[in-house]
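Render this sequence as a predicted structure.
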Amino acid sequence: MPRKKTTTKKPTKKRVSRKKTSDYEAKDIYVLKGLEPIRRRPGMYIGSTGPEGLHHLIWECVDNSLDEAIMGYCKNIEVRLLKDNRIKAIDDGRGIPVEKHPQTKKSALETVMTTLHAGAKFGGKAYQVAGGLHGVGISVVCALSRYMRAEVCRKGVKYAQEYSRGKAKTKVKKVGKCKKPGTTIVFEPDPEIFKEIKFNLKSVLNHLRQQAYLTPGVKITVHDGRVSPPFPYNFYFEGGLRSYIKYLVAGAEPRHPHIFYTKGEKDKVIVEIAFQYAGEMECQEEGFANNIFTGEGGAHLTGFRTALTRALNDYARKNGYLDKKEENFTGNDVREGLVAAISVKLKEPQFEGQTKARLGNPEAKTIVDSVFSEALTDFLEKNPQDAKAIIENCLLASRARKAAKAARTTVLRKGVLEGLTLPGKLADCSSRNPEESELYLVEGDSAGGSCKMARDRRFQAILPLKGKILNVERARLDKILTFKEIKSLIIALGTAIAQDFDIQKLRYHRIIIMTDADVDGAHIRTLLLTLFFRNFREVIENGYLYIAQPPLYRIQSGKKVQYAYIEADKTEILNSFKKEKKASVSIQRYKGLGEMNPDQLWETTMNPENRILLKVTIEDAKTADHIFDILMGKEVLPRKKFIQVHAKKVKNLDI
């Protein structure tokens, strides 16, 4: 194309004043009062203003009730999901004090609700162990609620106070009599803070079920008042962590008969641990500090892992499972298939961040190591059958690790020797900028040929995959790396795999799975999703994995052509043609990508301006892990049960 001729004017010089002016004075210093800091920066206190932060408001309310339960003052906790986006939390604990506070000169109830860092957990004897240590929990809920009401029963009298956006709207008043002590909180999240207010029943049930396991003897009830009649869910477990491990292992085959369990105390820190090895390759460790789930681990998990590795290595050498020439089990070897829950209760936990995702107390590592090491050594000596099964599991993992390392090295070395030659069937793009580059994973050579002709060569690469890849849910890494199609994919991605994986080396920031709209295509898509979830999870977590949505129908009337991507689109298009009184209408149902010519494929599925891409996300990694175990694992019975339960909910299933 000829260049467009442009002209520019010569810039004229302007006099610039060199006199310095100050725009930073005392008046520019802002002092936020009350709970205003929370409303200005809610993410600092609840993590985000998305679904996780929204649900965190419930957890903060319930944490206070659980603290009462841990101290032995509460036996019943209720959470009610009400209409109009309201939540009601009820407990039969001691009730928040209502007397005048000596420092604030306000009611203690109002002080707790509307003041940061106000609570009974900073000192004194009211709480020896508490999860809501920071004293900001309930005040955060108050600050981020459009409406909030607290009702407290103490000494036969019921008191109430209402709040809005962190400020008291009424005084604390006596509103009646009551027989039992307790606290009731009703709150409605503020739409000025949360753009979408939609409480997920499943998330609430999962969290509170977990808390019921951690607080044996306490009944937790969830009512969903948004449906009629309100449906109650009750959680009550006497077995504590033992029961929790049974729940986590359900659906998998245990490697050994007895669940390990211990509870001990050292330096006023209570340690409780339970575990069992299951017939899966993934490790599932869950850590808790004062019943708060520490999703990012911390000192208590470090102490547990150190003691586990040392104790199993000592037992294996002492009993001849490892000879002098063999190297010790690694941490990954002893954790393969492990399902464990580690709970510590301590007076002053040091959480990293208000959302309490990681425990920072350095003493927790030493104490957990000491208590667990002694108990595990005793368990192995007293239960030789369990010990044998556990050690054999570690030996199998160790041998597989060495075989995988050799296979992995071979794959990488081959790439190096060939000058990092990309797979022959890969039609790469010319761009070397990962941020703009795309890799389409397509089903078969036929679809691959159409996609190669349809693509924009500058930024779109095509990798055809022949047939169905290996189900990696049922295979170890050494076997995975012998599969030709997977090796081609690893080399194309550029990230390597397992211990060598490096997300920074990913060659494409959009990896698009594009399969036919039939049963085989759905199966191939599921196998690829399993591969990425198990071996390239960071690709998903960084938002780089997508699923292409080709059209289901091509609908033509006269010269007018429209595409329907879902059944609803088809109905809408046909109705529009009827209104326009078009003559004959022809409908073509696409079963495969190969049925579309390159122009149609580009127009409907590959053109960034028109296409529909579905980003693959992991909202709940633990739930996703469990679903993959059920649907792609070896056990048939859990899969059959899952299909029977969800069969009626399936839509758009090709038969």
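Summary. The chain has a mean pLDDT of 85. The radius of gyration is 30 Å.
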